Amino acid sequence: RLRDSGALCDVAPTLLELVGLPIPAQFQGQSLVPLFSGVDLPARPVVSETSWRGIDLAAARLGDWKLIEDRQTGERRLYDLASDPLESADLGAGHPDLVERLAATIELVCRPLPDLDVQGITGPRDAEAERALRALGYFGK
Predict the structure, then answer these.
(1) Beta bridge partners of residue 70, listed in sequence order
(2) pTM of this structure
C-alpha cells in the first residue's frame, strides 16, 4: 500500500510515531503510520535528475503526472502515466498550471547550493586537517 507514498525522509518520523515519541517540527518527512490502516496520504512530488553523456534532465512526478525538463534547452514535457506509461504524448499545453507547479518543484529541489563560506568557522583544528581542507580549496591559498 506504499504506492507513490514514502521517501527516505519519512523513515525517522514513522519510527518515532511507532514508538510513541514526538516528531520534531524541523523534520521534512511525515509519518507513514496512517498508511498501515489504509488511510491515503496527500501526494507529494518526487524529483529526480540525471546528467550523463551530454544529457541533463530533471523530472518531477506527482501522482500519475510526470514533468520532464531538459535543462539544456528548457523544453518541458508533461505526461499522464496512468493513460500513457510509455510517455509518448506531451500534455503540457493543456495543463499549464501543473507544468509550472512541477517546474517550480524541480527548481526548488535541484537548484545549485550556495558556495560554503568557511572563512568564519572557528574552533580547534589540527594542522593535518587544515592542510587537507586547503588542498580541497577551503581557506584560500
Answers:
(1) 57
(2) 0.60
CB 37 within 8 A of CB 54: no
Provide Rg for the chain, Cα atoms: 21
What is the C-alpha to C-alpha distance for residues 115 and 119, in angstroms, rounded to an integer? 12
- pLDDT tens-digit profile of 86-124? 999 999 999 999 999 999 989 888 776 666 555 555 665
Q: Which residues in 90-119 are b (16+ Cβ under 10 Å) and which e?
A: eebeeeeeebeebbebbeeeeeeeeeeeee
What gap in Å lies between CA 82 and CA 109, rounded to an integer?
25
Q: Hey, what amino acid is at 26? A: Q
